[in-house]
Amino acid sequence: MTESLVHSVNWNIDYKVNLGRAWSRFLVSLRDDRVILGTTCGSCDKTYVPPQAYCEACYEPMDAWVEVPPTGTLEAATIAQHAFQGGPPAPYAIGAIALDGTDTLFIHLISGIDLSDQENARTLLRRGTRVRAVWSQERTGSIRDIDHFAPVG
Amino acid sequence: MTERIAIAGVAAAYGRDHPAPKADEVVFQVCSAALRQAGLRGQDVDQAMLSSLDLYDGRAISNGLLVPAAGGYLKDESRIEGDSSLAVVAAAANIRARQAEVAMVVAVSLPEIDHEQAADAAELRRFTETISNYTFDAHHARPLGMSAGVALALHSAHTIDRGEMTREEMARRAAADISRGAKTAWSDRRTEVTPEEVLAAPGLAWPVTELMLPGECPGVVAIVLASEARVRRAKGTRAWIRGWGTATGRHLAAPGWLADPADATRAAATKAYARSGIADPAELEVIETTALTPALQPPVERALGLDGDGDPRVNRTGGATSSYPGLANGALRVLKAVDALENLGSGGPALAAVHATDNLMGPISATSAVLVLERA
Amino acid sequence: MRNHAAVAGVGLTATTSPGRQTASKTELCQEAVDRALAHSGLRRAEIDAVVVGNIDGFEATSTAGRTIVPALGLAPGTSVYIVNTGGTTGGGVFNLAASLVRGGEAERVLCVGPSTFDGPVDLQAVINTALPVAMEQPLGIDGVHVGGMFAAAYQSRYGVADEVLELCAAQQREHAAKNPYAHIRKPLPPETAATPITTPLTLGMVCPVSSGATAVVVTTETIARRLDRNPVVRIAAYGSVADTHLGTGRHDFSSCEVLALLADRIYKDAGIMDPRRELDVLEIFSPYAPMQLILLEDLGMCGRGEAPHLVRDGSLHVDGDLPTNLSGGPHSTNPGVAAQLAPVAYIALQLMGQAAGGVQVAEARRGLAHSTGSAWWQFHTLAILEKTE
């Protein structure tokens, strides 16, 4: 049998991704005001966080902006035990949060508890747990301007 | 002949007039405009059929962001990674297969790069040439620096060597296209140029200069397609698609792509004409072609059954040399043909042919589509 | 005159891990295509269109289908369509082929599902780039976390024990053990299987990265009948559905709500009133084993929260009343687009009475093939295949 070769192949492309009107306003508000903004659809009355420029269900533009509180209820969470190339160090927890006053589930990191004890952490991050946003010290206009959400008593 | 498909609305946004958009926001605006023309709403869309390329969009599975913006939320969806003419064909096949009554075809070519860079054809080409290089196979052609531009230059050099066209003639054709398109709507190259200026433009690879290559620009084009039954309850039909044909060209190592680069166009046109009941291309009043360089104009036009020498029906607004919004090219050519048919005024049937192909690898392994449109 | 579309032949290659694979992506596709053509009885030159899938960013070449198709030896000019919808690409390839045939555009269409996951050094890092830019990508979310989130939501909503999730994995691996085309055909050692990945998923519940290819030939029903090689398998209904892009748009991670909508539509098209009774065999896309529970519920096979019973009472085995993933599914074999097209191939083989490895379902007449993918299972496809007399 002939030798079987393997080549390393690498792509190197730099992008600058436009975030558009809705996400720009959302992230600027996190950065400058520590305020979470959503948009409400004038047709179906659903509130989206992160905001969108249009309601995909009604297929109508959305331009009614609302401020939502930095608190919500955990719908589900998963505690990651392994890091991937370029990702956060493990362990870390990702949660789906029903933010108060919204009709969507906001995805963010959950922290503020000991994640190394996986079984205990699972109990602490069960469905229905109330959580609150913890702001980053240095805010740059990124989703990580909210550092994470933490369970509140 | 098979049943016709209605083009109920066509809308576009592209070029330098659209600063800092988020791709899905632009898609929503353009699709909304196309739906308004059709007198339809987002909820009427049964299927979103996209044409886009992940490597332009800066994310894997980029249609994930775009489908809901195209009316695809809770609906059927798919995405063709190829020229948008194929997305039109795929959506039309879905309508004929009774998988949809209304399909939103949206072509998105908004490279996620710096704005100044995207607004400049030569700068944009630096990016698309890189992506093109990544489209050639990783182990043979890519390390050699193959790209769409290089392939087009090889073909142009071959054309000169065979005595089929001089470099001066290439410059004359490019200047004529750019100047003809310069003052029209939807053009990207907006300044008239002389053949001398074409020759003096920066070179990409001999004998091709920047101004002989497609006028690369960002763009989004949306086309609302509908079945004949459904469109009766819409606002109207802008044009009908009577028939079409597709075929794919030869690959890099296959003999023939240099000597006969339009064989796929010929096969696609033969199918499209037969299915549309066209016996003689003289019946066509409007012809939009996609010749990626001046050297490709005669073979493409001959493949479409024309004489290949300055037919006044061809590319009245300058064709791909005037403006070329990446994978949205085919949809743009449809838009131009629909506009042209409408501008002919009323009175009897009028037919248009649209030929489109992608420029991901120049003339290599490219799928060509020919669509025959009919005035509504 | 429109004609039904039918599956005339299928071709699967053996699968293995990327590290053990010695064939190239193109060679694997050639092998799958050769098998599918031989199975259908069609000659290569008779193919009039090819639909091929790829997933850019997961592969060394962009729109890799363009470099694969020229090596398949088809007639010059054969039309090539490249589909990329991420995790539903294989299903999308098949759906487009069905429409090209039913819509009268082509009569003999070759579907190619290449091996697309075996290139990246860190596949999860690549999957992360398919999550919403700026909002969810920076949170370190990849494929397993999406799988973990759904499983966690399901588990907490219905009070499901970890043992049930483990049983989902064990059953699919048990099925894979009999499938000559499967990749992981032996259970992992218990302590390896128990390695935590992301709660509640452990290594034993997570799919491998596999290398292999799948091809399917779709023709008009008339041609399939004339070929007379295999029982004719009609494509009775097919379609896809899209959810919102952001995970944020979901209301509930214990269900793939959009799949239930798609299923309603497809069952109506196929004239199915009671899917549990009227479908004889299922191949559903659950790379993370517990997803099976959610998918079965969305497909209307039982009520919400009741799927654990189907797993526990053996319903999903070859001799059960709802044979599901007898191939072992993507949980045991996941070569990307090839795995997404494979459900169609396995269902067609079942209906033709040609299932390999002793898992033929007696008198299988109608089956369902599913695929899903993109961020948070944004897209799903379904196809219902039916043996015609």
Structure commentary:
The complex is a heterotrimer of chains A (153), B (376) and C (389). Chain A is α+β, with helices and mostly antiparallel strands and 153 residues long. Chain A has one domain (20-151). Chain A is 14% helix and 33% strand. Chain A is built from two helices and ten strands, in the order H-E-E-E-E-E-E-E-E-H-E-E. Chain A has a five-stranded antiparallel sheet, covered by helices on one side. In chain A, strands 2-1-5 form a three-stranded antiparallel sheet, covered by helices on one side. In chain A, strand 1 and strand 2 form a beta hairpin. Chain A is globular, with a radius of gyration of 19 Å. Chain A starts with 19 loop residues before the first helix and ends with a strand. The mean pLDDT of chain A is 94. Chain B has helices spanning 23-38, 54-57, 63-66, 84-96, 115-118, 121-135, 148-161, 167-182, 195-200, 228-231, 263-276, 297-303, 319-322, 329-343, and strands at 5-14, 47-51, 76-80, 102-109, 203-205, 208-209, 219-227, 239-248, 284-288, 351-357, 367-375. Chain B contains 14 helices and eleven strands. In chain B, helix 4 (84-96) packs across helix 14. Chain B has a nine-stranded mixed sheet with strand order 3-2-4-7-1-8-11-10-9. In chain B, a hairpin with a 2-residue loop joins strand 5 and strand 6. Chain B is globular and about 55 Å long. Chain B has 376 residues and is of the alpha/beta class. By secondary structure, chain C is an alpha/beta fold. Chain C folds into two domains: 5-121 and 209-227, 3-Layer(aba) Sandwich (Peroxisomal Thiolase, Chain A, domain 1), CATH 3.40.47; 124-208 and 237-387, Peroxisomal Thiolase, Chain A, domain 1. Helix content of chain C is 34%, strand content 17%. Chain C has helices at 25-40, 65-68, 89-102, 123-128, 143-158, 162-176, 190-193, 221-227, 257-270, 275-278, 291-298, 307-312, 329-332, 337-352, and strands at residues 5-12, 49-53, 79-83, 108-113, 196-198, 201-202, 214-220, 233-242, 281-283, 366-373, 379-387. Chain C has a nine-stranded mixed sheet, sandwiched between helices. Chain C has a two-stranded antiparallel sheet with strand order 5-6. Chain C is globular. Classes of the chains: A alpha+beta (153), B alpha/beta (376), C alpha/beta (389). Chains B and C meet through helix 3, strand 3, helix 4, helix 6 and strand 8 of B and helix 2, strand 3, helix 3 and strand 8 of C.
